[in-house]
Design a protein that fits this description.
With 348 residues, the protein is α+β, with helices and mostly antiparallel strands. It has helices at residues 10-13, 34-39, 100-108, 153-168, 193-197, 200-225, 290-298; strands at 63-65, 69-71, 74-76, 81-85, 115-118, 131-135, 146-152, 172-173, 178-180, 186-188, 191-192, 232-236, 239-243, 256-260, 269-271, 274-278, 284-285, 288-289, 304-308. The strands form eight sheets. A three-stranded mixed beta sheet has the order 1-4-5. Strands 6-7-12 form a three-stranded mixed beta sheet, sandwiched between helices. A three-stranded mixed beta sheet has the order 15-16-19, with helices on one face.
């Protein structure tokens, strides 16, 4: 499924889905871009959804799918679709939402019963900035066989405060890295733990605003996916407070948004037993990046992490590893979608 023919990030532009049909494959018109030239072939089709006014929330980093699961005695053999948009109860037309063309298509996938969470508070506004499913084949005791990584600003702030209290306040983070200032000029990104913690407005924004918004979404997913606290794994992620005019972000009047401060390790690619995560460039303590160590320790037994440098290619441009990658997953075998009749469904 293709979102936009011109986009540097393959995950937001292209979603790889699985589809079975009772009919012969339809003839597909050509598309003179990557999907047609590199992917299209036997048993691999594509189509494009066009919007007259596309926005960031229409990208496919904002469309994720849970692993197969059972919720309240209802089976979801193909998982459930998760997409981001307005805050629950936020019906104002000025709030950002995935375009109706894409949402209508998503809701037509009745067997995957979509869930909507609140991502409009993020500058980019994508689900993959704050949540990521990973396999857990060994420690799961309830049959779920997965965990859900969740960005935790509170955990990140607490870790930095702990390091500061232990005498590491002068440790420099983002060594050798540069970032664009408000005028687009590249300046040094280096900052010490103590200097960061002294930015009271930033710290409070993460603890009281960002964490609150993430907790709202955790509550939604707990209810809709039948999860409990043990199904979540918190990963240290800090967000920067950014201000934009309403003309900059299509469809919103809010000028305060959040974007990853450190490279966001939740926004990563899952490949088998490996997690390919962005290198966070956090505080190096005893020769080891402290945030890398926290992530490695938090993951389930048998899960390995490889940290990838994405600072210039994606992080500095408001993206991460998951934005710049995509994966062709093994299709479901022996589970034709048409035998799963959802509540309120019809004879498909």
């Amino acid at each position: 499924m293709l979102n936009s023919p011109r986009n540097r990030s393959i995950n937001p532009s292209l979603a790889i889905d699985n589809c079975s049909t009772l009919e012969l494959p339809p003839a597909a018109p050509g598309l003179c871009e990557f999907a047609e030239e590199e992917l299209w072939g036997p048993d691999f089709g594509y189509f494009q959804i066009v919007s007259l006014r596309p926005g960031s929330l229409d990208s496919f980093g904002n469309l994720e799918v849970s692993p197969p699961l059972s919720v309240n005695n209802k089976e979801y053999p193909f998982g459930r679709i998760i997409l981001g948009g307005k805050k629950p109860g936020g019906y104002a037309s000025t709030k950002r939402q995935m375009t109706s063309n894409v949402r209508q298509f998503v809701y037509a996938q009745k067997v995957q019963s979509p869930i909507e969470i609140y991502t409009d508070w993020l500058l980019v506004g994508h689900v993959d900035e704050i949540f990521s499913f990973i396999p857990d084949y060994y420690s799961s005791i309830d049959g779920k066989k997965f965990k859900l990584l969740v960005a935790s600003p509170s955990l990140c702030v607490d870790a930095l405060k702990e390091l500061d209290a232990e005498g590491h306040g002068d440790v420099v983070m983002f060594k050798g890295k540069k970032k664009p200032d408000s005028k687009g000029k590249w300046i040094s990104a280096e900052i010490t733990i103590g200097q960061l913690l002294s930015e009271t407005e930033l710290v409070e924004f993460n603890i009281f605003d960002c964490q609150k918004n993430i907790d709202i979404n955790k509550a939604i997913l707990k209810k809709e996916l039948g999860l409990d606290d043990d199904d979540f794994i918190e990963i240290p992620v800090l967000f920067n407070k950014v201000e934009y005019s309403m003309e900059t972000i299509v469809g919103t009047t809010d000028t305060i948004k959040a974007v990853a401060y450190f490279p966001d390790m939740v926004n990563h690619l899952v490949l088998g037993d490996y997690s390919l995560a962005p290198k966070p460039h956090g505080p190096v303590i005893n020769g080891k990046d402290y945030f890398e160590k926290m992530m490695e320790k938090a993951l389930p037994i048998g899960r390995l992490v490889r940290f990838i440098e994405d600072w210039n290619t994606y992080h500095a441009q408001d993206g991460e590893v998951h934005c710049g990658t995509n994966a062709l997953r093994r299709s479901f075998e022996g589970k034709p979608w048409w035998i799963y009749m959802p509540d309120g469904g019809f004879d498909i």
